[in-house]
Amino acid sequence: MTKRAIVTGVTGQDGSYLAEFLLEKGYEVHGIIRRSSSYNQERLEDLLTEEESNALENNRNFHLHYGDVTDAQNITRLISEIQPDEIYNLAAQSHVRVSFDMPGYTLDVDGKGTLNILEAVRILGLSDKTRVYQASTSELYGKVQEVPQTENTPFYPRSPYGAAKIYGYWITKNYRESYNMFAVNGILFNHESERRGETFVTRKITLAAARIAQGKQNKLKLGNLDSLRDWGYAKDYVECMWLILQHEEPEDFVIATGEMHSVREFVELAFKQVNIDLKWVGEGINEKGISVKTGEVIVEIDPQLFRPAEVEQLLGNPTKAKTLLGWNPTKTSFEQLVSVMVNYDMNKVSQETVSKKMFDGAVGMNHLNANNSRVLA
């Protein structure tokens, strides 16, 4: 029988990849989207457009519903109507720096939103039927207590985002132990892709590299270049989410590559991909990245982009996922990840340039036609 899955946060990076993955597995996928006055389904266009090569077959099993995890009644109604076999809770206010500006909202979505889903499954009597995946985060570790971090490493969150997610983690574990639910946490370390939001540091870097290379931007401003992160490819990570819910026993897993790189390394690789070599001069907030070829300052430090409480390093140990789930965390290497993102953004910036020229040309022609009409009149 066809399995049914609910994916919250389906319009996001992970949600769109997961929806595609589940559809390829033959699932009936129900995505939850928030009502917005602006278009927010760009990442789902391949699934919604019948002209795409494989979308016609897939989109018969792909359904979108308006909803919000902060609305308990709405979520309970949707779960009751859909009767899912699996729920993937990927909905979140996921920007760490923004969580310092919006701590209450972050708590409502990332913490209470998780509770609303678990409680809905419980009160609807679906505990034996529905398996729940909670998207947890490496930000739980924050001020790390050991390196690398495993499923047993103590938590020490350093942001409202991490603190909200720690509630989501523990309430998931509590419902598993209290109500015998198949409710699990995937502790995802940093995972990026060409679908990452443009305000996140990795996408900010790759877009800037593309724009600077094509003369559309002068400088890139960043915060802490020395932050160390375990970066993987989001498209690989959604496979592990699915594997966690297929495991015989409900267990929590670290999802990571086991490799750590600095923001500085990411910057250097991204610019090298567009044939710009950088050299670094200065120290601290006065450090600058200079083009070796032109001598121009391309990268500058902006103190406002530092977090109030920094997380200096995160490095996950994926041994459990590799051993019990057979998952390959380095299917896409760090270098390949940066290359994929930069190449995508080079094409994006190039297309934007062509579109602007066509628009400007059309405006100019309309203006000329209007003048000619006045002359002829």
TrEMBL record:
The keyword tRNA processing does not apply. It catalyses: GDP-alpha-D-mannose = GDP-4-dehydro-alpha-D-rhamnose + H2O. Its EC number is 4.2.1.47. Transmembrane segments: none annotated. The keyword Lyase applies. Residues 6-341 form the NAD(P)-binding domain. Keywords: Lyase, NADP. InterPro entries: GDP_Man_deHydtase, NAD(P)-bd_dom, NAD(P)-bd_dom_sf. Its cofactor is NADP(+). GO terms for molecular function: GDP-mannose 4,6-dehydratase activity; NADP+ binding. This is GDP-mannose 4,6-dehydratase. It comes from Paenibacillus protaetiae. The gene is gmd.
